[in-house]
């Protein structure tokens, strides 16, 4: 079995990993939740950029505590992020949990999410086939770790472009484990009645019967792959007939480790053919 892809280097995130952050410090960091510091709005709260007292810039995901589901997403996200570690997964730095306030402090992703690059502010930095391939390889390696290399199988259950975030170097990180789930022992699926994923990305068996498994994550990954390489939203009319993934049975879907191998092979062949087209190097 392959060894987990842990990032070995010590970084500043490790230094504050167990540091508790108070509500007052979060108020200071976000300048009293100033909308100018808003990074994104999610289903159960808002995400702000903030500078902690020691100068570290972080993302602060503040949950609406009046909603019971929001509290459950907080617990799920804490549980998954605290037990996982991979270069393509978002890192949790700390949490702040009071009676009526919950916030997750996350590694800041200064370059936004994949959804906005694909459909809102299309930028040349993700325009090439190779860059898109690298993004999907990053995502697939994070998912391979969760599905095949982590000691307990972790399901994401909400894979989609707005949950893929970019760091300074435009390396992709999988985020948003609010409805992530753990599979225990020999289980290879679980039935969940609450909090389904996102329409369009959810596998039919997950949407209809709440059956979450590695295969349901694979469905969402497949939809995202089509979206990234065509640049079209899945609601587009081109995704009907032969191009629909919906007729495929869960067991026909590839496993994440095979996808990683396949994407690496395609990338290698593509790079070699581009080099061959450019001819031998002149020195
Ligand atoms: N660590 C982060 N760094 C930068 N932006 C973030 C970060 N986490 C979330 N965001 C922004 O906030 C949005 C919503 O966050 P997300 O964790 O996906 O919440 P939700 O569960 O409500 O969808 C993301 O799509 C992204 O644009
Ligand atoms: Mg999200």
Structural class given helices, strands, pairing? alpha+beta
- State the helical fraction: 25-40%
Number of strands: 11
The CATH architecture of the largest domain would be Orthogonal Bundle
Give the CATH superfamily of the largest domain: Transferase(Phosphotransferase) domain 1
Strand content: 15-25%
Number of domains: 2
Tell the overall outline.
globular
What is CATH's topology name of the largest domain?
Transferase(Phosphotransferase), domain 1
What is the makeup of the main sheet? 5 strands, antiparallel
Bound ligands, each once = adenosine-5'-diphosphate, magnesium ion
Q: For the largest beta sheet, what order do the strands appear in spatially?
A: 1-2-3-5-4
Keywords: ATP-binding, Kinase, Leucine-rich repeat, Membrane, Nucleotide-binding, Repeat, Serine/threonine-protein kinase, Transferase, Transmembrane, Transmembrane helix
Organism: Oryza sativa subsp. indica
Pfam family, one: Pkinase
Domain Protein kinase: 33-283
